[in-house]
């Protein structure tokens, strides 16, 4: 119980810290929460790993429907043609490169087909997808930890590129963004997702608590219904079926306007992911992480390989640099990073398309990741 409280309260402390300390704000709460977990794991304290894994799994499964609830899929289909094409190219790129990587690293990485599915999940959706796919595929605890750690390190390097040189580099072979004449400073639903260092919208908690509790109740019902469906159809806890059902029910719920307009749902989903980061970090061991550099190599191959393919395909389709950057951000990371990158690009017009694309990524990531994994399964 003590460790559950640590996992629940640590993200709140981190969110306060990143608001007040500039360096921490630059790192972002996700990386800091991972580091806190890893620090706890390597201190002379006894961490119950079973509690850590259970917390991580529950947090991810509940976070998925919360993140999907606020997504307007019909509106996403009406976005600019270049945004849709760029995101589709990003998905194709990560599918292709992850599949190639599964063959390249099959002798060095155990169950490389499962790792490929996890990479597709995280680099089209987000951390929730990667973790849920790993759970559904029965990935070993060691591989689970290593893939998450590699994602933090490699993802941090690409984020640094996006925030510094990406626009200048891409403008050398991609056309510049053409303004439509209006800014889009919010997600179209009257709320902001904040920057990479601020995934939770800061407003009076009492004002949104009833809506958060409603959204949480819906998410728990979706998870419960998915588990019940799996038991009914298979007689057991079929993890893959549970994940697909949670995703499908979450998408279906988003078509109910009253549920889609619930404030605080995606923000609370992001908070649960920060809890996941702390919990999964406590299972990490520095000796274990340093002993498997091949996972980091595979991750770097997946990230930078898919990014290069995405950029090359975007050049063929003559998609502008800013749109490519923001859709890459939405795919490789998640919605909270979109406003921060848009700020670096000094382009408010791409915020809405980036946020919406990132949310859609949460939906398609599970399907694509599981599909590729089973396609590659020996």
Q: Radius of gyration, rounded?
A: 19 Å
Number of domains: 1
Oligomeric form of this entry?
Answer: single chain
For the record, the CATH class is Mainly Alpha
The CATH architecture can be given as: Up-down Bundle
Strand content: under 5%
CATH topology, by name, is Na+/H+ antiporter like fold
Number of DSSP-assigned strands: 0
Structural class: mainly alpha
Q: With helices defined by DSSP (H or I, 4 residues minimum), what is the helix count?
A: 19
Largest sheet: none
Give the overall silhouette.
Answer: globular
Low-confidence stretches: 182-202
Query: How far is the N terminus from the C terminus?
Result: 41 Å
Helix content: over 70%
Would you write up a description of this structure?
With 378 residues, the chain is mainly α. α11 packs across α12. The longest helix is centred in the middle third of the chain and has 30 residues.
TL;DR of this structure?
With about 375 residues, the chain is an all-alpha fold.
Name a few traits of the molecule.
mainly alpha, Na+/H+ antiporter like fold, 19 helices, 378 residues
Q: What's the helix and strand layout?
A:
Elements lengths: L1 H19 L1 H6 L1 H13 L7 H21 L3 H5 L3 H24 L7 H13 L2 H11 L3 H24 L1 H5 L34 H30 L4 H16 L2 H4 L4 H17 L4 H5 L2 H24 L4 H12 L5 H8 L5 H26 L2
Helix pairs in contact: 1-3, 1-14, 3-14, 4-8, 4-11, 4-12, 4-14, 6-7, 6-16, 6-17, 6-19, 7-8, 7-19, 8-12, 8-19, 9-16, 11-12, 12-19, 17-18, 17-19
């Amino acid at each position: 119980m003590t460790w559950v409280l640590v996992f629940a309260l640590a993200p709140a402390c981190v969110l306060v810290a990143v608001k007040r300390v500039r360096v921490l704000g630059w790192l972002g709460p996700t990386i800091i929460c991972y580091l806190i977990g890893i620090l706890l794991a390597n201190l002379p304290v006894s961490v119950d790993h079973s509690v850590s894994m259970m917390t991580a799994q529950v947090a991810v499964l509940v976070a998925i429907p919360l993140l999907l609830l606020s997504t307007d899929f019909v509106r996403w289909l009406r976005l600019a043609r270049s945004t849709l094409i760029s995101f589709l190219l990003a998905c194709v790129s990560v599918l292709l490169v992850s599949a190639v990587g599964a063959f390249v690293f099959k002798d060095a990485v155990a169950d490389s087909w499962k790792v490929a599915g996890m990479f597709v999940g995280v680099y089209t959706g987000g951390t929730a997808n990667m973790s849920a796919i790993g759970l559904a595929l029965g990935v070993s605890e060691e591989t689970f930890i290593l893939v998450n750690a590699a994602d933090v390190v490699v993802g941090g390097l690409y984020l640094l590129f996006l925030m510094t040189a990406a626009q200048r580099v891409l403008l050398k072979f991609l056309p510049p963004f053409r303004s439509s004449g209006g800014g889009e400073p919010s997600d179209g639903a009257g709320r902001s997702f904040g920057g990479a260092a601020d995934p939770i919208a800061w407003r009076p908690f009492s004002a949104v608590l009833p809506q958060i509790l409603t959204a949480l109740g819906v998410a728990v019902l979706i998870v419960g219904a998915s588990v019940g469906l799996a038991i009914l159809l298979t007689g057991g806890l079929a993890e893959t079926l549970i994940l697909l059902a949670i995703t499908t029910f979450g998408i279906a719920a988003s078509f109910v306007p009253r549920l889609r307009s619930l404030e605080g749902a995606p923000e609370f989903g992001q908070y649960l992911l920060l809890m996941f980061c702390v919990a999964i970090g406590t299972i990490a061991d520095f000796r274990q992480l340093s002993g498997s550099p091949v996972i980091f190599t595979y991750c770097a191959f997946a990230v930078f390989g898919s990014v290069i393919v995405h950029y090359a395909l975007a050049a063929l389709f003559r998609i502008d640099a800013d749109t490519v950057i923001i859709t890459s951000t939405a795919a490789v990371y998640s919605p909270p990073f979109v406003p921060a990158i848009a700020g670096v690009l000094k382009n408010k017009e791409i915020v809405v398309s980036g946020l919406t694309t990132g949310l859609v990524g949460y939906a398609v990531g599970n399907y694509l990741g599981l599909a590729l994994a089973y396609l590659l399964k020996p």
